[in-house]
Structure formats: structure tokens, C-alpha cells
Amino acid sequence: MRLILIILTISYISIAYQTTKYIILSRLIEKIAIVLTRKNHPKICQDGVNITPTIVYFRYASFTLNCNKADIVVSNSYIPAFHRPFLAMSYDALVKNDNAVAGLYWLDGRYQLVFVKERLKRFGIVLPKEYKQFEVSIKDLSF
Question: What's the rounded Cα separation, in Å, for the pair 112 and 52?
């Protein structure tokens, strides 16, 4: 009986952890999309990265499968075809893709959030004052 109780408890904690992780990630993606697009209800498309588990937790943003109709693309790969600003979910995608205006990726045991000055300027995006601390030049990102 104790073994069953222990297994159920571990399962519950695991599910609760995953749910919390997806809620936090969805809020981050959604807030970044709102800041970058200046829309209250931006359309978000995924390409090359699986954010599907987070979609159910979006409160203001909507998800679209057609990246040509999206306001912003979330990706971890190089996407030359969409010509939309996108949120890079990996460091490599941020550095290699000219359309990556922001990056949200795991580095040194924590999430990093950066906005690339030159690319923001090219897309005509002006960040609110509270996000200026995350703005960096592309030259500063290269190791």
C-alpha cells in the first residue's frame, strides 16, 4: 500500500512540475510576443520547436499553423522564408538568423532573455522602458 502511495505522490509531483513549467513558458512567450508586436492578441506560429504543450495556457495570444499569417514565429532553427520577426528558442538560432529579434534560451542553468538592437531597429520595434535592460548588440552575443 505504501508503494502505491509513493508512486502516486511522485506521479502527482511530476505532473504538477510539468504543468507549472508550461504555464511559465507560455506566459513568457506570450508577453514577449505582445511586446514585440504591440498587439494585445498576437498570432504566434511555431516552427522547428515544439511549444504545443504551452498553447493551452495562452491567455491573450492565439496560435496559428500558418506562419505567413502569424505576427511572430517561435523557432529554434533557421527560417529564411517567413520574413517575420521571430523569437529564437536557442542561442544558435538567435545568432544565425537575421529575423531573430529576441531570444529565450537555456544557458548556464537558467533562461536567458535578450533582444537584439540592430534587428529590432530593422523591424521598427521599439521596446518599452522595462525591457531595455535586456537589449544587446549582436556583436556582444558572439563568443
Answer: 21
